[in-house]
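Mods, move this if it's the wrong board.
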Amino acid sequence: MRVALFTDNFLPKIDGIVTMVCLLVDHLEKRGHETLIVAPDMGVTHYRNTPIIGAPGFPMPLYPQLKFGFPVPRTFFKLRAFKPDVAHMFHPALVGGFGLLMTQPFGIPRVASFHLDYGRLVHHFGLGYIEPITDFLTWWLFNWADVALAQSTPVEARMRDLRVRKIRRWPRGVDAERFHPRQRSESMRERLSGGCPSERLLIYVGRLSSEKRLTDLRAVLEQVPGTRLALVGDGPQRAELEAYFSGLPVHFAGYLQGEELAAAYASADAFVFPSSLESFGLVLLEAMAAGLPVIAARVGGVTDIVREGVNGYSFDIGDIKGLVERTRAALHDSAHLRQMGAAARAYAETQSWAQILDDLIDLYEELIERRRRKRHG
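Not the wrong board. Structure tokens:
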């Protein structure tokens, strides 16, 4: 089977969507399938054995680390030469939207997965007046696909509000061998805690951007004594955050990958996630696999995976008092913290990427067979 993947965001950028594309490509190759990626041209021509067709474009004004990509005629010709059996659009916008158009003549099934709520995103950036347009485009593009994939209960509800049809659930998983409590490292803890490993260490992993509401964490540092914070990742708000947290026990670790990232998770005490915009939040499961309870805003997949007081705590978006109280509840008792970490790990062990991605491959094959039967009467 030949699978064409379309995404408006790819390497060298690192975030949840890029991680998902890479995980899927890795799994498809492992299962013996061929893959092709169409993404904005960021100077990367291959991911492992998979060629990347770079769509020319320009940086986004509000987020220069990302790029608008516009597929051109040569994109179509390269795609046609690949002869895909199925196309998967990772939240169709520019690249994915053109992908739906370009694959229409091929008569192949198209799958669209929901990863970004553009309506709420533009509202967050003070552009709420164009939300009706983004909502319309979401309705139109997702209904153009054969199947629309939702990764969490809130996302499925949002898609239904937007009148998206043919929805199926595509949950998230985690590599519980890669992210594991045994990756704990005293040297990493020393580094992330700024040389104070005996204090409680909170960790956040992800983009450093305004929609993540990382400034809310200042109240935790000021009101929960003996607490330190490590921010892993980078983004447009980094310089602002460094100034905002100046004089507070905050370590900016930058991007970490591989063994370093796994060690960073496992070397902390709890994972904090005050984000206001999320479709799922892969980092939540990575943290849980590393044995960390999560303290997260009720966004994305949080309501699906967090059990209050069992493997973590949740709070309403923007509820700083709730964030402080839940953090205090998680950290005040060492035995309770360890019990929640063990429960978090136990839950993560049930979320196998292999099974979840095999189920997606089964869906691809089901759609291909359905098209074949339709063509042959």
